[in-house]
Structures are given as C-alpha cells and as structure tokens.
Amino acid sequence: VQLQASGGGVVEAGGSLRLSCAISGRSLDRYTLGWFRQVPGEDREFVDREFVAAVAWSAGYRYYSDSVKGRFTISRDNSRKTVSLQMNNLKPDDTAVYYCNAKQGTTASWGQGTLVTVSS
Q: Residue 54 class from Cβ within 10 Å (0-12 exposed, 13-18 middle, 19+ buried)?
C-alpha cells in the first residue's frame, strides 16, 4: 500500500489540528492503520518513532498511547480510504513529525511525515 499524509502545521498550545492519510493499493481489510511520531532532528529512520494511535481497518477497534488518550481521535473512512487523526488540546510536547503507517502481520508501510509544531 502507499500512504500520503497531510495536514501538519503550526498551532498554539491548546489548539487543534487534523491530520489525514490517503491510502492506495490493495484491500485494507486485514490492516491496522496508525499514526506514529518522531521528534524533529532525530534522523534514525524507523527508530524511536513513538506510537500515537491506531485503528483496525475492518473491525474499527481503536488504540491510543497514554500521552494522547482523551485528546486525539483516530478515525477511518472506508469509502475514501483515508485515516485521520483529530488532535485537540495540543501541547508543546506534541511537536513532532507525524507518520501514517499501515501494518499487516509483520509487513508495514510508511507514508512521508508531516510536521506538527505546537508553540507555547
């Protein structure tokens, strides 16, 4: 599958942003779609990417890290093949490059990152 993330930007603390990831390729029925983040400047690819949220594409089960639970909401649109991350009450610690991810078993695909900057 291929993933294209969008929606990053600069926001003040307490504000909101919505990230979106467009997905193309094979059927997603057996996939879990998620968002991870990495602090800007950490160049080690795939290392230290922090899990943020995920959704099982078929069943719709949602998972969140403790750091974002209650503030972020992940959702999917089956017809448009997109997964979104609504981020509310943003904090400076949420500043990161956000990556969407599609995982099936041991196979994972990543989109390019989108930068979210939260100013204090």
A: buried
